[in-house]
Queue: 2 jobs
Job 1
Amino acid sequence: MAGRLRVHSFTVSLDGFGTGEGLTDDEPFGHAGERLHTWMFASPEEGGGPPDGVDARMKAAHWDGIGAEIMGRRKFHVGTGPIPDEWHGFWGSEPPFHTPVIVLTHHPRPDLVMEGGTTFHFLDVTPEEALERARALAGDGDVRLGGGTETVRSFLDADLVDELHLVVAPVVLGRGQRLWDGQEALEERFAIEAVAGDYPGVTHLLLTRRG
Amino acid sequence: MAGRLRVHSFTVSLDGFGTGEGLTDDEPFGHAGERLHTWMFASPEEGGGPPDGVDARMKAAHWDGIGAEIMGRRKFHVGTGPIPDEWHGFWGSEPPFHTPVIVLTHHPRPDLVMEGGTTFHFLDVTPEEALERARALAGDGDVRLGGGTETVRSFLDADLVDELHLVVAPVVLGRGQRLWDGQEALEERFAIEAVAGDYPGVTHLLLTRRG
């Protein structure tokens, strides 16, 4: 079934923080730094998994059959208020999305066409409206919900998410933005599977909306 | 090495709560009910693991080489103030501990000798003093730190814990007592291993104090 809304490789700490405190352009995860995502970028020598391992397969699923992404404004630009004209995101001139990307913001600006097939659309809309627009842009593909934490929560609150691949990293952040806040009894809406990762201490959680 | 302080099968929700809200004698885990511990008691027909599975082996380790337990007052009796004389704990006339058990309370009362080798000692002491007493009582054995949540935290704060076996259950409680509070950067003090459980969605976390 096309048009599903999927979260992939969204990583939280053991204490449930999807990002740290004190986000800046240079440290978009704040005091968490790169600790949440060590599992994602580690070489085998650094404890990372092999090319055909669990971690690699889980990462690859991020790209399978995706026709569009929705992201929160802070994944595109850390800060509040209008986004500076010269800011084109964290990903250089050819972002890795290669699809339309809806950026949710209260400060819309013109579409931004990047190299390699990524176009950013800046919309001030509800989660429901964003999903409708993203599905139209995605064609036969699914829609990826790209985060950050508050954006994932808002789509869970609206019961719009079909699948979540979460990763629990073996770090305790202590402060930041909590993914699970307001999600009491989420297990009643989602079947939950846990798979140990290759990187030591990492767990993959696969949540699938119950039929 | 004998005399280690070990936590076993201490179960938290995905959002890190070791117990729910609204604890009573009838519902000692409050609104969490039995949801945290479904993995522990499920038959194979209910999704539980086989007798030689990961979950069973992890449960069995709870009893290996233990000479004494330390528990918080609320594991023995839910409430505050003096413990009623007629209250002998949640476990009937023959509790499963079969060792000395130190109950930390600001309201000491005389030792309580139960059938099967369990004696409860009610002490108003610091974590350090409790561990020293427990090690003396444990002989050649290790000491189990039996919970609850605040008790585990207080021993982590005092850096007295050598090993923790935690279990993450696939439920989101939303409220209760948070295990991870105040434990920022715990991964610097403990190596962390994750093992998928037999029961769907369960993860075992093995934390070992770094040498």
Job 2
Amino acid sequence: MLRFKGDFDTQEIDLVCVEGAYQLLKAEQVEGLVGYYNLPQSSLVLCDEISSSLLEETARIETIAVIGIGGSTLGIKAIDRLLRSKTANAKKIVYFENSDPVSIAQETAQIEYEKTLFIVISKSGGTVETLSIFKHLIATFNISLQDSKKVLVVSDEGSILSQFADHYNIKRFVIPSNVGGRFSVLSAVGVLPLMLAGFDVASILRGAQSFGERFWNRQEDHLLHKAAFYVSNAKNHPINVLFSYSDRFEEFGKWTVQLWGESLGKKNQKEERVGLTPISLIGSVDQHSFLQLIIEGPLNKTVTFMSVEHANESLIIPEMNLPFLEKSDFVNGKSFDTLINAQCHATMQSVAQSGVSVDEIIWESIDETSVGEMILYYELLTSASGALLEVDTYNQPGVELGKQILQSYFQK
Amino acid sequence: MLRFKGDFDTQEIDLVCVEGAYQLLKAEQVEGLVGYYNLPQSSLVLCDEISSSLLEETARIETIAVIGIGGSTLGIKAIDRLLRSKTANAKKIVYFENSDPVSIAQETAQIEYEKTLFIVISKSGGTVETLSIFKHLIATFNISLQDSKKVLVVSDEGSILSQFADHYNIKRFVIPSNVGGRFSVLSAVGVLPLMLAGFDVASILRGAQSFGERFWNRQEDHLLHKAAFYVSNAKNHPINVLFSYSDRFEEFGKWTVQLWGESLGKKNQKEERVGLTPISLIGSVDQHSFLQLIIEGPLNKTVTFMSVEHANESLIIPEMNLPFLEKSDFVNGKSFDTLINAQCHATMQSVAQSGVSVDEIIWESIDETSVGEMILYYELLTSASGALLEVDTYNQPGVELGKQILQSYFQK
């Protein structure tokens, strides 16, 4: 369960805009323009399909190799990291993402061919990193594309990758065309590899579904208020920091960075450059790094603190008095859980006192339901902010030029 | 070897300020106010000492447990990641940093007591995470503090941790008092664990030394020009992005974030809040995440692109024509090295075309000499920027309040 604390509704936000943003999102949902709103429901059907058709026949697989990048891996990695420590016997997932040859060699060395299932994920189907690495793996392991149990594909209906899959009779899963890559984690993109790895995906989906229902019933308006506050302060607070107090949020933070940065950073309807810059930090580590800049640097940031009430209460700081080190004895006998949560709250208090706008998201514990809730929360926050910024939240036209230039280099 | 490309000197920078910054740094060095300038030389002596006194007796150790946080680990991790793939038989280093109980449990599970050497690192000696985790490890493994071969300490002379070490006759190493934590990687903080793990630290130091000599001889003035450009544009470009095209730069990026953020984000002599916000990205992965925001979002960023000319030229994209996937065949037969470097340059070109100021740092390869050069480059760039911002580059007063609040929670 998640709790949200913030006082955005008492700050200067325009309630007319808030209402407008809600109606815009509602229209996107009702008209089917944006598909991720309905994934929690529709993907439950997919779970059943995977359960009955694939779970048993892949039971002896030990490693899942995911070949993808960006929206095709960030969400999977986020959930994998958040839930692995509580998921007994989850299978190993090896991610082939970057075109970095040193990484590819290291990842390839982790693959035992006989025990591995390869899942190729690309929404467009044409991602150069993904296809190049796929070719490398085919060549290295002599992957038989005719073997229907070795490779799975997730892509848009009709994409070149889907056509390739059909040509070889490779089993494939579809990303709905109205679901953008960075909003696709609850589609087959995330559901397929995570279920096959042994994660309880249905519970994640039900968590997301319940949050969505509350949002549409106007019981989570705080996120609309937060979006309105962020957008109306975009000029003086162009940077939004997420300060998460658990290492397990590292990959989730990266997922939010893509979602926030790529969705909102673009030209609006008046061709003005708008957007908000996301930064993901981990506490307490980054108290010893980035915090000084937040506290005393320019007041150009907002900070969301995220903490976990119950992570592992059995790990206690021993009642040990070491000579000369008495200074740290004030936490003796407390759990590390208590320490890290106190660090979160002390830091939040000091940041707020320095004049920075803060809010807080509290996880009772990191479980499937909360993960689902959190994913939908961030996606809806992004959609609402995009509506208020008057941008197309779901495209990414700015990255096309680089791809064209890349191709031109090789045509010389 | 590193090559630096940028045209900061032709942009509107104030050469009088550049000269002033150089003279300020020179005075800091000559008067001994700032100690890191001399570490490349002085730590070579430390290398000899470690070679003769510790290398042999720790030869059978298989794992080094580093207990520290912030400036006590970020630099070690950066070098570890950059050089591990080229360092044969480097010993495993396990980092105990965060007060996160789930991480501590996972890290503890990696320790085989008989084969492990523990190194406790804290400049002040009183870091609550470090001391609490150290107590946990003492209790878990029943570490004998009397055993002079099990624990080493790195701290300031006279700190409570140093006094503790002397009490138990634990071998300890000193961080010079004029070397700040985030500038300490080339002191015993980095030298001791990295040497014992088998890295060629002397070559790193010599790389740093040669870069320092060139800087003091005015052969690396480009970094002064860059600092002047960044500082004079701090209001309209408050965010500095480092976009590094190799996964091996992940931890190095985090090291630069601490160095840049914590050194420059503070109140200047007029009590004005100043500072520049660092962001570290990895290519090509973050082309699929953050790039859209750089290209089309607000023009409030500068971007430094970093690439490696020769990483692993033997990993070739196979000459394979897959039906329907011909779109990606334009890179067939090329190395992944060629692909990732082309991606870096294509992205840089597209970012520059969108009106963002870019510069470039090219590594011929990732080797010890270049790592040393790069460390000193970033430290000097930070010092020069701090001088131009008129801040005390070497303190971090903003984080004290949070520590006081933390203590007050436990005194209730």
